[in-house]
Amino acid sequence: MKITYTERKVNLRDNFKDRVEKKLKKFDKIFSDDAEAFVVVTVDKNSQTVEITIRDKSMVYRAEKTMPEMNDAVDKCVDVLGRQLRKNKSRLEKRLRQGSLDELVAPVDEPVVEEDYSVVRTKEIPVKPISVDEAILQMNMVGHKFFMFTNAETNEVNVVYLRDDGKYGLLVPTVGE
Fold first, then answer.
1. pLDDT tens across 96-108, in order?
2. What is the mean pLDDT of residues 22-34?
């Protein structure tokens, strides 16, 4: 797995990078050799945020934790990624290496509850093309955290969403692998 580091307001030490590599090494059996991990570390006054994103084929796994110490945040992120993989074990085995999740899942004592994905509501949205600004306005007016729309500029289906930092994001479809 290739690991890329992004440092925001901090210079990462080699021992921190070694710790991250050691922690992520336990996922090597699960992901292909082409998998990429992106580690973003941000230091603020009283907190340190670590965000780990792993991309493998068309799947994306992400965890973000803010703690007083970045080493603790890395540990929590790896735990979250492990829980995500355990929770979706049977579905992921079809997409990832067959049987590779068994070793990761076995040592955990907590019971794993497999949930069926069920659609409880279907909502129809108007397909009249609108601008990104109009979509954000509509999203805010209905009080949602995301809004799907047809982009007037590109004539493609896009999604605007409210980020945790209070800013807005835009999801644009691309052809995947």
1. 555 555 555 545 4
2. 87
List the end-to-end C-alpha distance of the chain, in Å, as a whole number: 18
Token pair recorded at residue 114: 């497999």
**pLDDT at 106 (0 to 100):** 47
The mean pLDDT value of the chain amounts to 84
Q: What is the number of alpha carbons within 13 Å of residue 122 lying toward its C-beta? A: 2
User: For the chain, what is the total number of helices (H) and then of strands (E)?
Assistant: 5, 7
In DSSP notation, 20-89 reads: HHHHHHTTTTTS-TT-EEEEEEEE-SS-EEEEEEEEETTEEEEEEEEESSHHHHHHHHHHHHHHHHHHTH
What structural domains and CATH numbers belong to the chain? Answer: 2-105 (3.30.160.100), 119-177 (3.30.505.50)
